[in-house]
Amino acid sequence: MSSSSVPARRHAVRALAMAGLLAAATLAGCGFHLRGQATYQFTSIYVNAPGSPGFATELKRALAAAGTATLVEDPTKAQVILDIPLIVDNKDVLSLSSSGRVREFALEKRVQLSLHTPGGVQWLKPDEITIRRTYTYDDSERLARNIEENRLLREMQTDAVQQIVRRLQAARNPA
Fold this sequence. Notes:
Elements: H1 5-29, E1 44-48, H2 53-66, E2 70-71, E3 80-96, E4 102-116, E5 122-136, H3 142-170
Parallel strand pairs: 1-2, 1-3
Antiparallel strand pairs: 3-4, 4-5
């Protein structure tokens, strides 16, 4: 190894270290932090989502994995009840080609929710989460587009679940 390559290597290591420090300072300055465990103002929760067992299962998994509250199977033993009375998936034509064939679809997932005690005291007013996605469609690629639509619907469900978890973190006892 020549003596001139050692200072060049040290300079490269210093430059890399400075770039790392600059990136860390930038992330810290913008408020970035790793997602930690969700903390709630309640200790136990009952999830009431009778219309969509798949959605309820994913939501319960997310609450159990990320939060400090215990999931209970009896609403009378819960400090709060999360009601999800409506989950709707809609698919609409967004645009047509000049020959009248569908070119784009719009997908929409609407989830209504409220959070209250077994006695009826509202922790979160009835609210609705709406998530929209669009995708292009081509009759010659039906299978691929059906797969893409199913993937989008799964992503929309996961997004809705994560939004509910964040809203539960913001919920406060009104008393």
